[in-house]
Amino acid sequence: MYEVYSDEIFVLKTEEKKEKSLEVLAFSKFFGIIKIEVVDGRSEKSKLKNAFLKYSFSEVEIIKGKYSWRAVGGKMIKNFYFENKNQEKIIFLEKFFFYLEKFMILEKSEEELFSFCKNFFFFYFKDKDQDFSKKLEIFFMAYFLTFFGYFSLKGFDFVKKDFSQKKDFYFLEKISNEKFEKIEKEIKIFLEGFTF
Questions:
Q1: What pTM value is reported for the model?
Q2: Angle at CA of residue 104, ends 101 and 110, nearest 5°
């Protein structure tokens, strides 16, 4: 009897497999980067189809098999592409997915990073101010790259707070301006250098 785990995921990639199944690469709250098999995930009648679409944030039920994880339930909470369709923001999300896959170790839990990313992207796709969105991108990448050791910035504890309003980000920006002054150009180069 397999134990069923309730989890939250970002769907990073999907790959078609035989008999209408999918292999999904996901960033999981509790297990980090994982591969999930979704049986009949490409079928029109599949109840799991939407939960495992690329760009989705979903609540899922998964079991650990002998060789991989397997989906047994799922509900899409938000699909960032279908609900927004802002191409620049989708490209930034792709950059995040690309670097996440590149930097993270398979099946190594990073709950703090997951919570930060969840808070950030739900707010980022809701905000309509393009200039402010660019500032958010710089802030996000500074935190993200510091998390993986690319920069050494002290005092990042303030990002652990929940944030859902623009004033929260202005607070973060005020605190972080001095810290990011020396690395902002490097981060912009890092972002501009991204190619699919």
A1: 0.80
A2: 120
